[in-house]
Write a structure and sequence with these properties.
single chain; 85 residues; mainly beta; 1 helix
């Protein structure tokens, strides 16, 4: 799984309280081994280690949005890859 600038993840229902009731988490950039993100409708923002993001995805606390498919996405749109899981 690619982690790239602009990637969006749904927050599981059980974990929305941990994220100020945000519905989504969007990656805004990567600095070293950290990712910066914004929550849903701009309620909040933050930074977490890339390793923590990988853990949340593995535990299904964050679920990758599948709005991009291999057929529909050009290389230019996905050129912001910042890490891999």
């Amino acid at each position: 799984m690619d982690i790239y600038k602009g990637a969006e993840f749904d927050i599981s229902e059980d974990n929305k309280l941990h994220y100020k009731k945000g519905d989504t988490l969007k990656i805004s950039q990567k600095k070293g081994s950290f990712v910066q993100f914004t929550l849903g409708d701009g309620r909040s923002y933050g930074t977490m280690p890339l390793q923590q993001l990988e853990y949340l995805l593995k535990k299904r606390e964050l679920i990758e949005k599948s709005e991009y498919s291999a057929e529909d996405t050009s290389g230019d749109e996905r050129s912001g890859v910042i890490g891999q899981l």
